[in-house]
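hey can u run this one w/ 4'-deoxy-4'-aminopyridoxal-5'-phosphate bound, need the structure tokens asap thx
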Amino acid sequence: SLQAKMSRQVQARRLEGIDKNIWVEFVKLAAAYSKVNLGQGFPDFPAPDFLTEALTRALGGGNHMLHQYTRAFGHPPLVKVLAQFFEKLLGRDLDPMTNVMVTVGAYQALFCCFQALVDEGDEVIIIEPFFDCYEPMVKMAGGTPVFVPLRPNPPKDGKLMSSADWQLDPAELASKFSERTKAIVLNSPNNPLGKVFSRGELGLIAELCVKHDVLCVSDEVYEWLVYDGKQHIRIASLQGMWDRTVIVGSAGKTFSATGWKVGWVVGPDRLLQHLRTVHQNSVYHCATLAQEAVAQGFQRELMLYGKPESYFVQLPKELQQKRDWLVQSLDGVGMKPIVPEGTYFLVADISQFKSDVPDVPSSDEPYDYRFAKWMVKNKGLAAIPLSAFYSEAHKNNYTNFIRFCFAKEEATLKAANDILQKWKQEKAS
Ligand code: PMP
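ok here u go:
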């Protein structure tokens, strides 16, 4: 035949072992079967009017240059207002041109961090459970992920567990640091647990970073989503940490507009200069119109900072109510929720539901995967198995949980409650 034969391996070696992805499968299942989708992390309520109005203004406002390229490392109005905002939050002067870079969502911010800072043979500490892309991104950069788990300590008084009951073992954490350690990834508030790291926990991590001269990639995309009067503490504000920390943020999470894919990094120039090299040579920049509108969103928030009208004050209030509804729904049917201190995720214990799900003896799939698939197909309710947020080596210790997203309209959460109530009645009869 005239057709050229390709017998050689076509894919680069860096893709080995990272070709399976939880989202491909579960997003497809949710699309096919779910009546109520509490799986993937995005709001089903609208983004705030001030943001969509800013986009409409940018689009129709007569500045046709907003349809063209802007500055590669961030549209000037956006980096300027981000610098102003983070100056307030961090209590230090920032240069918008060198201490801030805009990315295509927090995803690309993370990709730039690992590509720019991790070398062949470097170890990167990842706290489990973790947002799943950290592991393949570290591997693609040639690094070796080293995992350390948050360990659950169930409360003895019969109260519901809180995400605060999942803690690092200080000795275990310390044992993961060595001269090969280049960086640690911190995600507070944490997806999937909703844990908000305390000052003490952050202090411990900071101390180890300084002692071992290790960098910190601090994924803070849920920085505004903190409940019950808890405070989000930025590790970059701790002694010795600014110079070694890259803060990662997301307009998608901040302004309930995940489809816009606007993210950023904030950090010292000595780190960001290398992220700029990766960004310049891969993505170049993120849509100008979206950056313009996000800049206006931040200008509004800067003006209203700390005031009751601020979206950053209102959104967590609304989400806390939604969290409480979902906690109640799940608790009511015996799917024990772990009450999250932050984020819009909630992890629930499904160990009481084993008899509902047919055992598949030939399957090597963990129980939480089988449960989540069975639930979406038979009950129309989509959630994500927690073990997807663990390394291969530790997955099997955490197969009794699933993760729900509660950034949803009241009607969606009511519909989820109806499914759960009906299920409970069926079980009882
Ligand atoms: N980090 C965490 C912890 C996340 O949960 C997500 C999105 N689910 C991201 C980063 C990516 O954010 P973005 O949508 O802005 O790319």
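The CA atoms of residues 92 and 391 lie 37 Å apart. anyway lmk if its weird
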